[in-house]
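Now for a chain:

_____
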Amino acid sequence: MTAETIPIENGQQVGVLVTSSISILIVIVAVGLRIVAKKIGNRIDYSDYCIVAAALWNTAMHACCISLVTYGGFGFHTTEIYQRFGPETATFFFKGIMSFSILWNATVCFSKLSILSMYAALIPMSSMLQWARILGALVVTWNIANILAAFLICRPLSKNWNFALPGTCGSQPSFYFSMGIVNLITDAVIIALPMPYLYKLRIAWRRKLAVMALLSIGVGTWAITIYRQTLLPNLDFTDMTYEGVLATILSGLEPAVAIVLACIPLMRPLFSKTRNTANSSFSYGSSTHTSLFSKKGGKVPDLDPTATFSELMDDNDASSQIELQPIKTSQIVRVSSVCSHHKQVPANLNHAITVETRWEVRRE
């Protein structure tokens, strides 16, 4: 039997519809602007693919929220749903809220992978790549575990949407609470990950702090997460259709805001007077050796990440001028033997002196 369309009668329903619609819109706009900014220099990379995937999952998640209102009675008490709209509507809701949990995990997973992939491109060092891969593996494992737990928390599975069936269920509020705590911890670790590398950048402190602030912008989601966490312990899951409205709104906003904040640091080319072009020496994300998803074979060369952060900084800043200077200990004399397997080398060329001059690019 097809679920009945539910009339919009209260503010809670309107709140879900408005926030979900806005969340879909702002994420699509933010990701679209990010892609345009990256295409200015033809630098689409794995972090962009991940953020697009996160945007698609975000759209599906909020479409699920909207359907919970229009077909699941979200915003009404469960008893009222049974009385006015029938058990099919309640069943639709509880199946939908389980789907919401799965979509939430997929959205969060790809948004975090996008950030880690961005770090791997911005900081082309073997240690950063190793840490990014370790954290990426933990994020994927954690989200898969959450999805499995959503299916296994009630036995049999159908008890998730039919509480009258014999069987057992774990505490859904406790499950969602622990999921939020782990999400908060992983956010903190991911934000802290690039800070030691940023501290060592050879740039002015004012600009260094600006880059740190840009890459720490994800803390903006913490207020949403913490407030949501305070609501979960007292949540009555049997009346989730009414009691869980605000917690669900905040849960939907959290990854949407995270996606938008992950896009903001990479939008600067759209607003810069001097845009990077395809001929620019800036090579963000162009190296296959520093990709989060590249094969692990071969040694990753450690490069100076200072230049790669030009995408995040103001080119018009007087402190951003690049000066080519020789290293103080620049002249190295090396004696080498010259030999050939094909022809006789004159005796006076058996030994040669090679003089090397090394140059260093400094950003003053």
Q: What stands out?
A: The beta strands are 154-155, 168-169, 322-337, 351-363. Residues 321-363 form one domain.
